[in-house]
Design brief:
Elements: H1 2-5, E1 11-13, E2 16-18, E3 25-29, E4 36-41, H2 45-62, H3 67-83, H4 85-96, H5 100-110, H6 112-120, E5 127-129, E6 136-144, E7 147-151, H7 159-171, E8 174-178, H8 184-196, E9 204-206, H9 213-221, E10 225-231, H10 234-245, E11 250-254, E12 259-263, H11 269-281, E13 292-298, H12 302-314, H13 334-349, E14 353-356, E15 360-361, E16 371-372, E17 375-378, H14 385-388, E18 395-401, H15 404-412, E19 419-423, H16 427-436, E20 441-444, E21 463-464, H17 471-474, E22 477-485
Parallel strand pairs: 7-8, 7-10, 8-9, 10-11, 12-13, 12-19, 13-18, 17-18, 19-20
Antiparallel strand pairs: 1-2, 3-4, 5-6, 6-22, 11-21, 14-17, 15-16
Helix pairs in contact: 2-9, 3-6, 3-7, 4-5, 4-8, 5-7, 6-7, 11-12
């Protein structure tokens, strides 16, 4: 665990690694074994206030640096983080559990946000606006919003961080980062990279903490925080939005999902099967907001699809993320394991049939971890919990449909609207369905998900705002209109 030893375990405030003022620490467990891999500082509200003050002071100078200078810092971070990809990947596996090769791929994707927003830092354009009066000039500029409080989840502990801090820093904002309590080490390692490339003190601060409510509340009540950027559950997102309303803080929220994966009768069959397996199981054991949560298959190919899908799922190797050829690692903790188990058990009681899997893995090497067998459920209906709720585990419910209109109505019948997928060769159908689905992301014959270049975010209760793309940096700016009357 040398990669763990090399990571700072303290808070980063004003460029200094410091203990929590309380002196407390908390342990970070490996979800594959239950054993602690490290102990990190357990910060509180007082630490958060210090970090916010530091960010506020740093904003005075950082916001005035030239776009090209900010871009250079992100370019250096891109290179150094790329150089440390393998170490970061191992670190993610220790605290998150995902297979190490998957973790390395996450780092490779996460670092791309430094690269993308290094370019966007130089493209924060204003506008010269035609005036209705000859002696008046009008123009618009964008300026950084201020101190950003970023709260990130555990399932993609590198990507969710760079997707927030890269545009914030590029825009000229300063950041106080509160990473998930399950995966603080990755956040601290990324902060160390930015420190190593010379990012000025206070521009990025990190406060780790076991119970996030205390720090979250400080983010909401502290008037120096001008924006809260959060990825996590819809329930917590709503709480943050309510709290932010008192000071009208800016918020961007990437929340829960309930992604439909629709396979039409004319789909490229092999590609549809591969895509469904990939987006369901190959992303942190199904613990992703954009994972396929409901697989709708046209009734004319349902039997064939199910057979091929189940065969591939049975071949998935489950185990510790450091074992060779492992595709599905452990779930993050016991609460998640219990939730997944409960959803499957409830579905079976309501008439669903388990085609493979169907329960926790507890024997031998699985005994001390939070492993759940890759599962496929048949005879599923839309009113079952596995269809209505975000599963967040390696469980795939398969449902059938007959018509376009029917499947679109069923796919849209949810409070969520983050990601969706459809497979078909009919070009007209591509446009009809893609435009009708009420989701921020529609993958057509594609299950890879979003890219750095495209804006990502949700409809309905899946969030507010967009991350990535040129829109991603706009979330961290304020628009200022300037009106000048020329002297006579």
């Amino acid at each position: 665990m040398s990669v763990v030893k090399d990571v700072p375990k303290q808070l980063l405030i004003n460029g200094q690694w410091v203990d929590a003022k309380s002196g407390k620490t908390f342990e970070v467990p490996n979800p594959a074994t239950g054993e602690a891999v490290a102990a990190v500082a357990d910060g509180g509200a007082e630490d958060a206030r210090s970090a916010i003050r530091s960010a506020h002071e740093a904003f005075k100078s950082w916001s005035r640096t030239s776009p090209i200078e900010r871009s250079r810092y992100l370019e250096k971070a891109f290179k150094l983080m790329s150089d440390r990809r393998d170490e970061l990947g191992q670190l993610i596996t220790f605290e998150n559990g995902k297979p190490v090769e998957e973790a390395k791929k996450e780092v490779a994707f996460a670092v791309g946000y430094f690269d993308w927003f290094a370019g966007e830092a130089r493209r924060i354009y204003g506008e010269l606006i035609p005036s209705n009066v000859a002696t008046r000039r009008l123009w618009m500029i964008r300026q950084p919003v201020g101190v950003v409080a970023a709260i990130t989840p555990w399932n993609f502990p590198a990507t969710m961080i760079t997707r927030k801090i890269a545009p914030a820093l590029a825009a000229g904002c300063t950041v106080v980062l509160k990473p998930a309590e399950q995966t603080p080490l990755t956040a601290l390692a990324i902060a160390k990279i930015l420190q190593d490339v010379g990012l000025p003190p206070g521009v990025l601060n990190v406060v780790t903490n076991l119970y996030p409510e205390e720090i979250g509340q400080e983010f909401l009540v502290n008037p120096l925080v001008r924006k809260v950027a959060f990825t996590g559950s819809t329930e917590v997102g709503k709480l943050l939005m309510r709290g932010a309303a008192d000071q009208l803080k800016r918020v961007s929220l990437e929340l829960g999902g309930n992604a439909p994966f629709i396979v039409f009768e004319d789909a490229d069959f092999d590609a549809a099967v591969e895509g469904a397996v990939g987006i369901k199981y190959l992303r942190v054991a199904g613990q992703s907001c954009i994972c396929a949560n409901r697989i709708y298959v046209h009734e004319s190919i349902a039997d064939r699809f199910t057979q091929a899908f189940v065969e591939k799922v049975k071949a998935i190797k489950v185990g510790s993320g450091f074992e060779p050829d492992v595709i599905v690692g452990p779930l993050i903790n016991k609460d998640t394991l219990d939730k997944v188990s409960g959803l499957v058990q409830a579905a079976v009681k309501q008439g669903a049939k388990v085609a493979t899997g169907g329960g926790p893995l507890k024997e031998g090497a699985f005994a001390k971890g939070y492993f759940y067998a890759p599962t496929v459920l048949l005879n599923v209906t839309d009113d079952m919990g596995v269809s209505r709720e975000e599963i967040f585990g390696p469980v795939a419910p398969i449902l059938t449909f007959q018509t376009e209109q029917e499947v679109v109505e069923r796919a849209n019948k949810t409070n969520y609207g983050l990601a969706s997928y459809l497979f078909t060769k009919d070009l007209g159908r591509v446009f009809r369905i893609a435009e009708a689905l009420e989701y921020g992301l529609v993958g057509v014959n594609d299950a890879a998900g979003y890219t750095h270049e495209t804006p990502f975010g949700g409809f309905k209760e899946s969030g507010l705002g967009r991350e990535g793309g040129k829109e991603g940096i706009d979330e961290y700016t304020e628009v200022k209109s300037i009106v000048v009357n020329l002297p006579k």
